[in-house]
Structure formats: C-alpha cells, structure tokens
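thread: overnight batch results

M.L. [08:02]
morning all. the overnight job finished for the chain we discussed friday. pasting input first so we're all looking at the same thing
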Amino acid sequence: MARIAGVNLPSQKKVEAALPYIYGIGLSLSRKILLEAKIDANKRTHELSEEEVNQLKQIIEKNHKVEGELRREILMNVKRLKEIGSYRGSRHSKGLTVRGQRTKTNSRTVRGNTRRTMGSGRKDAGQKT
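M.L. [08:03]
and the structure it wrote out:
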C-alpha cells in the first residue's frame, strides 16, 4: 500500500484515481503529476514500485501544497478575512454562503431553516400525547 503525504492510497484503484485521495490534488493535477513522473496512469497503485512511489512523493512534496499545509493556509486566509472585518469574513463566521449564491431558496439547511412536510413531526398512533 502506497503512502504519500500521510495518506494511504487505495491499492486496487488506478494511480490516476488514487492520487485525488490526497487533499489538494484533483484529477487534473494527478494527471500532470503522473506525466511529470512518466508513470502510466492506468497502472494500479499496488503495481507501483518503491522507486515510482518515491518519485511521486518527491514531486508532490517539492511542487505542491497538500494536506496539513494547505488546510492551515486556508484556515489562516479565512481567519484574516474575519479579523479585517470584510464582508466575506462575516459570511464565514455566520456560516452562510460566501461567493454570492442566492440564499432565499437554495440554502435552507445552511441557514437552519429546514421546512418539512406536514406529517413529518407526527407521533405514532399508539403513543400517548
């Protein structure tokens, strides 16, 4: 089982589909990394040699922010927005949408306004009220 950036990659998946298990790597970035490492994208993860795994580790660690480092950077950016009192920071702190989505109809669960059907809160007929 290959372990890259503190994440165990699933062994039965293709390498191209297994790399996105690492936070900060998507499908397109995994394809670029595999091209740079000159590894066949259709190879399964368990078929990779130690040399190929080390090569992938080196490329990811050198060129890309992933996992803890990326999460920390995102948290710091959000914290900065809150501290300077920007509109986006206030939306983050309230737990609302940040990027201009409509909230009148589409974000009921985020706002805590979940409407249910009429019979959703009814008790069983055998229970005492």
